[in-house]
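User
Take a look at the entry that follows and flag anything odd:
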Amino acid sequence: MALADWANLAGLVGVGLLAYPALIVNRYARLLARLARIPRNSDDPTAAELRARTEDGLIAIRDGWSFGKSLCLIGGTALAALSYALPLFPVLWHLVVPAAIANGG
């Protein structure tokens, strides 16, 4: 496989790994936006119930965050960065190595 193929594969896997935590963060953000729209000091029992259910949903998402989801986030970011860095290696190799040899290093 060529270096560009490895870069494409790293980018594809990185995006796939980032998709799972992104869906969870999206759900969390939507619940936060809903919570911000609910009045805090309302005598309306419907608003109080909606606020309690929304807060329970936020707590469930927070408590459901696992080490595996963190690894997906970190690994996906690293692979996506690697997909951009891989094509630069030949360029840097041809620039840095001859300069180092010329300088005696």
